[in-house]
Every structure is written in structure tokens, then in C-alpha cells.
User: Which sequence fits this backbone?
């Protein structure tokens, strides 16, 4: 059974939702027969600058920004996740391209975990070729392969295909989980809800 998860690596709700889904999967009786695939979704595909997250949130939400971020940080910590608020935000297209490379090398879960941990728990930038190369290499990818992707347009079509399918399905926010191609769960739902979705899809 395949589970597809549309997400962006700078999305805190995707970070939290992934942890909750993985708790559900760990309890699922047939977990060994489940394949999880990351699908690309850019929260801000037109973004051309890199800026501190607090600055972006303040511009978007005003005085509520700090309180909102503190609440999300606590939810992440409740899931056992590291969460720093001094992160950066920028265009994630290159990260998604590398995730497709990792998928071909059988290392997509490792790279996704490495990228999320680097961003949220360590506040390492994802927006320079040097930093992204280091993170991807730490996840097990070959440096030559990484730089070949970053220095070209490799996997651009694959990322656009993920995003096109998201539009066709009607996905407007992430995380968005599709179980067995037919059962959808939107948002960072509790682990129990993800568990019910897995069970229902399996039984059907």
C-alpha cells in the first residue's frame, strides 16, 4: 500500500504532521507493507529572497506572530521534535529536486529527515548550495550527484509533476496525505486519525 505525502520542508505543520503520521504507522499492523513517498509542494514557489522566519511572520501576521510561533513550537516539542525559531525561509525548489534524487537512490526518508532536522532543530540554512550539499551528504547521497543536480535543471520536471497533480487533486495546503490513491487526510492530524485512515484503506 502506498502513502503519498505532499509537503514543504519549511512548513512547520508538515514537520509536526510527519511525526504524527509516523507514530500511527509504527502502530499499524501492516506497516512493513506500506511505502511512503514524499511529493513536492512549494508554499511560496515565487519567493526569490531568503529572510528570517520571525521577520516573515511579523510582516504577515503582525503582533500575533510571536504568540502563533510559540504555540507551534510547543506542539512540535510535544511530539519530541527540536524547534528553533531563528530559522530562515526561502525557495525550496532545489530541496525538492534533491528529494527526487534521493528517491532514486533509495534515500528519500533519510534526506527528508536530515533536511527537516537541519532546518527546524538546528536552524541550518537550506538556501545555499554549500549547506544543502552538506546536509544531503550527511544523509548518504554522493556529493558528485548532489552538485550535478544543483548545477543543472535535473528533476525539475518531477517536481512540477508533483505540483501539477496537487492542483488536479485540489490541494491548497499541506501536509496532505493520500492513502492508497483514494483516501485523503488534510493537515497535521492526530496520530489516531492517521491510524484510522491506514486501517480503513487496508480493509477496503
Assistant:
Amino acid at each position: 500500500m502506498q502513502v503519498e505525502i505532499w509537503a514543504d520542508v519549511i512548513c512547520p505543520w508538515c514537520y509536526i504532521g510527519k511525526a504524527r503520521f509516523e507514530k500511527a504507522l509504527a502502530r499499524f499492523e501492516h506497516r512493513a507493507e506500506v511505502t511512503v513517498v514524499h511529493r513536492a509542494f512549494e508554499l511560496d514557489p515565487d519567493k526569490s529572497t531568503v529572510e528570517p522566519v520571525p521577520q516573515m511572520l511579523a510582516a504577515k501576521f503582525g503582533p500575533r506572530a510571536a504568540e502563533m510561533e510559540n504555540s507551534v513550537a510547543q506542539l512540535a516539542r510535544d511530539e519530541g521534535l527540536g524547534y528553533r525559531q531563528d530559522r530562515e525561509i526561502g525557495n525550496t525548489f532545489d530541496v525538492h529536486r534533491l528529494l527526487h534524487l534521493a528517491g532514486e537512490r533509495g534515500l528519500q526518508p533519510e534526506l527528508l529527515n536530515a533536511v527537516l532536522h537541519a532546518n527546524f532543530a538546528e536552524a541550518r540554512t537550506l538556501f545555499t548550495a554549500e549547506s544543502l550539499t552538506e546536509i544531503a551528504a550527511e544523509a548518504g547521497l554522493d556529493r558528485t550527484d548532489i552538485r550535478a543536480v544543483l548545477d543543472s535543471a535535473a528533476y525539475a520536471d518531477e517536481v512540477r509533476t508533483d505540483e501539477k497533480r496537487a492542483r488536479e487533486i485540489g490541494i491548497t495546503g499541506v501536509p496532505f496525505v493520500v492513502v492508497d490513491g483514494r483516501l485523503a487526510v488534510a493537515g497535521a492530524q492526530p496520530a489516531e486519525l492517521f491510524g484510522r485512515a491506514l486501517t480503513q484503506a487496508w480493509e477496503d
Summary: The first strand starts at residue 2 and ends at 7.
